[in-house]
Amino acid sequence: MLVDFHLTLPPQGVDVDAVVRNLKEAGVDAGVFYGYNEPPPINTLKAAARMYDFSVFFGIEVVFSDGKLLWIPPDEEMLKVIPSMEPFIAMGLDVSDKPGLWIGTG
Question: Is pLDDT above 90 for 82?
Answer without folding.
Answer: no
